[in-house]
Give the backbone structure.
Amino acid sequence: DDSAAAAASSAVAAVKEESEEEDEEEAQEGSRRRNRGKGKAARLQLTPTKAGRKSRSPRKSDAAASAEVAASGAAGAAAGEEGKQQRSSSNMARVLIVGLGNFDIPLCRHSVGQMVLHQLAATLGVSWSVDNKIRARLAVVPAANEAERAVLMLPTEPMNINGKAVSQVYRKFSIPKPQDVVLVHDEIDKPFGSITWKAGGSARGHNGIRSVSTCISSDDTTRLRVGVGRPERREDVSDYVLSAFNKSEQIKLKEQLLQKCVAELCSRYNLKPSSPQS
């Protein structure tokens, strides 16, 4: 019995020792695992930090670059808009005043509109320039704001095809609307020396007005009609308008009618004479 008890005691001691050794090994293994876990966690913790620093840096750079691009773009757009406005205003005018007539027959009744424009340019102190591409004479009346300028025009094409030149100048100077195109022309249905304004409407047989209306796709132009009278016989209309004014008419034309037309235009469109009219 004593030997059995001793054997059992030895066995228990052995088991206990093995258990303690296993516990110690497990404890050591657990410690190693914890250490490995800590090391791995540390590495994992460091990795996002480094990656974060690397990823955050480009984001800051991208943001800065985006801001710089945006600022540069805004500045460029502002400069571009300013340049566009400057370029646009340099090619703008508020009104286009056209003297209709046959340029190669300057003293005939049909060209009284051009006579008025010559007098208007002289009164305003502006000079004519030749535009062979458009086929016209142009004079620009200056203004503090370039978009408020007035443009005077003498088409050099025959009366019945002068609309093309008018439409080109209309677009070139970005005239706001057809009503801002003023056609100064002869009117046979009004007595000589009379002046009347007309807001748009049909050409009433006037080939110059018809050509302009066709080319700018509108019959809303403003007209200053200068009466030249009608011949006694209807069949003589063509010869009549292409003939010169008689002597008494020429005197009245120079002394009264042209100045009267100029005064009307200056008053209506706020044009300032360069010197007092005589």
Summary: The two ends are 159 Å apart (CA to CA). Helices lie at 2-90, 112-124, 163-172, 207-215, 237-241, 247-269. The first strand starts at residue 95 and ends at 99. Confidence is low (pLDDT under 50) at residues 2-16, 46-57, 79-87.
